[in-house]
Amino acid sequence: MNYSCSTDTIKQYLQTIPIFKECSNDVLSSFSQHACIKPLKKGQVIFLSDEPATHLYVVLSGWISLFRETEDGEQAIIDILTTDALFGDTALFDQQIYSYSAEASDECKVIAIPLSVFKKEIETNHAFTLSFLSSISAARKKQDMELEHRILQTAPQRIGCFLLKLHANKKDDKTVITLPYDKTLIAARLGMKPETFSRALGKLKKEVDGMVVKGSTIELNELKDLATYSCRACSSISPCKT
Amino acid sequence: MNYSCSTDTIKQYLQTIPIFKECSNDVLSSFSQHACIKPLKKGQVIFLSDEPATHLYVVLSGWISLFRETEDGEQAIIDILTTDALFGDTALFDQQIYSYSAEASDECKVIAIPLSVFKKEIETNHAFTLSFLSSISAARKKQDMELEHRILQTAPQRIGCFLLKLHANKKDDKTVITLPYDKTLIAARLGMKPETFSRALGKLKKEVDGMVVKGSTIELNELKDLATYSCRACSSISPCKT
DNA sequence: CGGACAATTGAGAGACTTCAACAGTCGTGG
DNA sequence: CCACGACTGTTGAAGTCTCTCAATTGTCCG
Description:
Two copies of one chain form a homodimer.
Chain A: H1 7-15, H2 18-21, H3 25-34, E1 36-40, E2 45-47, E3 55-61, E4 64-69, E5 75-81, E6 86-87, E7 101-104, E8 108-114, H4 115-124, H5 126-152, H6 155-168, E9 176-178, H7 183-189, H8 194-207, E10 212-214, E11 217-219, H9 223-230
Helix pairs in contact in A: 1-3, 4-5, 6-8, 6-9, 7-8
The structure holds a DNA duplex (30 and 30 nucleotides).
């Protein structure tokens, strides 16, 4: 990969991303001219919650975690995003303030687009607004399911659901799943402590026939068995797609 | 109040609702002509999850609960809405299917607007799309906070936070808060069992100086005391506004 | 007044967390 | 090349929070 910030490189990247797909050449050029590619090291903070917002970001590679911190010093992970995902866009409305913090949990590459440029496009380009709206709407549904899962699913079920989603996003159809980041981080992502994750994964292994865990790879016999166990406590038509 | 479905009545109502506020007279007329006011009895179902969507709705009065049901027969309450809130709008994108069920938990009145009419407006009227986008964006942030609360707050804190939000939406500034609906329903809304709610409210009463509970009214000495206790485990700059 | 339902209370079980100890892995520096 | 330390991950025991089940009280309405 290439670390350049050249307009052409960015344009090429943007074209592959769903939300920008329907943009005309002019629009893409406009974004590309003002955007730049930012390589990030593990642990690097991109912005902090309640900070005045300047850019929104698109993930090119790696994993970005969105989180908030409380007065107590507790951390709540809101989401962990990878390629094609947009973040920082919540600052577009209201007071142009980020509503969460963002940090690279990996070696990452992101495209930074000035909020003002994006906002101008939203204000003047109706087609683009519609595709943005559609993506926001999808994100909202995803969040909705997230909330439901926290209420209804047990820790082992939540892990199962997480694995199913990982599998759904894979290119191949093998029943071997590789965990994308630290177990500690997955635990936080699923709203549980590392110890609970470890024990819950153990329980899941017992409950699901033919499931084998070796470090960060998980082998399954039948995906269906995992879905039967995990999706029992979920309202969506299983298996869950979000 | 008046149960008529006349265009003028609906237009009058719509004009008072933030998302429609910036609509031109023509747009309002277009909505009003196709919309109708629907009175609802307590317990009446408006639509079910996964059903093909026909209308979206605006709450005029009463409380509408949005929920989903799992294979197990468990129910997850997603939100409980009142005056000015929009629902059913998640069906605008994707497959025009409702992503949750909606039921009146009260005597309610709602305005039903055909999805097709709303969608057409979204597709052709840029100013309207922007104001819709802004409202969706706000809803998303609210949901975000909801998720955080479920992870970080204990049951008594969640109740405290709920009370603070009730107070923030009140017209007057009295420190007497009236619960808007059944305690059982509030419990479900906050993701806990009625028994837990009862005990948690008892605990909250003990923890917060000067708090008195009499049936469905709650008296407070200082709002600040409640916020200090509840917002400790929350990331937002207290008190929470969502 | 009685029935239906909301709300409370108690006891015990279950899920998750906390604290603490320990095993495994990886990279660094001697 | 090995030893050390830092870090991730696992395991045990005890504690906390919430849920479940069951019994009881309170309240509203016919």
